[in-house]
């Protein structure tokens, strides 16, 4: 590493990225390239001799950027957001600069200690119960993704119950969730060896705005117990992926507690909104949870990846995931006075991710982060008003945070209830390159999702997006 070269190239790269952000609106939001496009543009083999940074950047501009979907574009409204920010970016830079691998405390004490502190800070901002703080039996940890968070708590819950009832009872263990729960739970069950037929997917429909019904959970548990099964894990969601529905944590949590079930709350997207006092009630009942997860990288201005997980009983995670090979032994770990985050996650190696969250919290402050969330929710409300002002469209699920679910109303007698019509509208707006939205299916209907949450999005972008949707709808309905 040549410091002076790093300085020169680093400045060049920052300029390149700043220019990218300056011109981001000029690109097609959704990349329009065809599969395999890059093979035709790049050589078959790596260069034998060094090339100049300028040559590489020219290729990025001409060959890579056309294949980039611009998640940071203000015209990006698909899936859920994946925020970047100056503070998040600087934190990433610093983390890349140190490039430590902080699996044990000793490998970089600051990495572990900052993570513990920042997760405690955020737990306090979210007003999580004290049991989630590091001062007691619990604590927080940064995982790469919400999927990893779900997997590690499922493993901890599985092993905790199997320690009690014996390893050969795996086939009796039952997991509960709603049909709106993210597929990450299904994947976690596959990895954890949960029998597929023991994954109870409870129906959540429009009658409860797609939230899990506690009574259904209760019934399912009673049935399972009477058939000799062992209920052990419940995953509720605050802000489901399809429609941002909120499961009733309090009631579900009480049922889980009464049956000694590990209760995980997945608030990957909507957890960020709960830093605002007026949205905090969406996680009322979190006292009943065993673990809680949210992605700071979705909607809290922290560059990907930064998924936050809190548990009340860290020993359950550690008992499931710790290993102690000779080559990693060290005095601090042996004396049991430190946190070794390698025992709270799947991989050994881990990045210094707390830096970026720390920088986001310090450079913006909680009040600005709250205003940021409020502004997106206000923009989503405005978008919803636009939808309701045009009788050709309908809103199809309540808007709770910054996601609006809507569709074009199908003409009477439409054979597939508007499926093709809305599919075509989605395709038309996304191939226009002007905006990017995504879809889902709710109650058998093909639904369009408009998620406000990109950091650069302003009212003008929402209005422009609405115009794109209206214009394409006019063309389609004419056809
Ligand atoms: N849970 C919910 C509610 C989500 O919306 C998502 C992704 O959008 C996930 C989990 C998966 O997130 P990740 O990509 O961090 O695993």
UniProtKB/TrEMBL annotation:
Domain of life: Eukaryota
Name of the protein in question: Tyrosine decarboxylase
Cofactor(s) listed: pyridoxal 5'-phosphate
Molecular-function annotations in GO: carboxy-lyase activity; pyridoxal phosphate binding
GO BP annotations, alphabetical order: amino acid metabolic process; carboxylic acid metabolic process; phenol-containing compound biosynthetic process; primary amino compound biosynthetic process
Key words of the record: Decarboxylase, Lyase, Pyridoxal phosphate
PROSITE patterns the UniProt entry points to: DDC_GAD_HDC_YDC
Organism: Dioscorea zingiberensis
Listed GO CC annotations: cytoplasm
Family classification: Belongs to the group II decarboxylase family.
UniProt key word Lyase: yes
A Pfam family per the record: Pyridoxal_deC
